[in-house]
Amino acid sequence: MVEAAHILVVDDDARLRSLLQNYLSNQGYRVSVASNAAAARRLMQGLSFDALVLDVMMPGETGLSFVQDLRGAAAPPSGHIPVLMLSALSDSKDRIAGLSSGSDDYLSKPFEPTELLLRLKNLLRRNEAAQSEAQVYEFGPFSFQIPLGELRKGQDVLRLTSGEKEILRLLAKAQGKPLSRDALSQGEDLAQGTRKIDVQINRLRQKIEMDPANPRYLQTVRGQGYALIAG
Question: Where among 94, 110, 133 does a domain terminate?
């Protein structure tokens, strides 16, 4: 049985949060709610979401700023998270600002719940199709099957440890963006995790680089961590 999509609703209006949570839950989705950007970040640190329904005008950090920060950060393990932005501002310049911030769709308040549901379904469908196309990450002569954790050079399968597979999964999903050692260690003790990551990165370089001392694909990005470069 396929697990229902998990939606995060972020809005400072408690009544609207409750209405959307009940409505989307009745449509078969799992729904979490947050009253502001800070609360949303805390939830996203521990949970994986398939889409965000996000209000523009909130006290403190606005929805626009939140999306810009989300898109500017390294991709989360779940990949691109589609964002449906809600706003009482309906002018074309406001819609343009919302879409320019990195949101995937924009819906003006007040809105019909059915329209929100249809837009959300479209976003989830498009994102699922995009992710299915990105299940193989290719770099140089190598191809990495993300779900299987299988690395090939041409037709030959290269042996990887479980730790090496997980590092490649995270780096491949990041699509060339650098990930910190902390992000790659998946919450392990920082000092121990950092040492382990460095050892595994060196072993991976021995397997995929012509010159491990001068890596072409698995690169160190100063001050940011490591990145798996396709080109």
Answer: 133
Handedness of CA 44, 46, 49, 55 (dihedral sign): negative
The domain boundary, picked from 133, 157, 181, lies at: 133
Bond into 178 cis (ω within 30)? no
Confirm whether pTM is higher than 0.85: no
Q: By the 8 A CB rule, do 82 and 127 touch?
A: yes
Structure-block tokens of residue 94: 């406001």
Q: How far does Cα 20 stand from its chain's mean position? A: 23
* 150 and 191 assigned to the same domain: yes
- Asked if 168 and 150 count as a contact pair (C-beta separation under 8 A), the reply is no
Tens digit of pLDDT for each residue in 177-211? 999 888 888 655 445 567 889 999 999 999 999 99
For 129-147, the pLDDT digits (tens) are 776 665 888 999 999 988 8
Q: Please count the residues of the chain.
A: 231
Contact 227, 171 (CB under 8 A): yes
- What's the pLDDT at 231? 67
H or E stretch covering 21:
helix 14-26
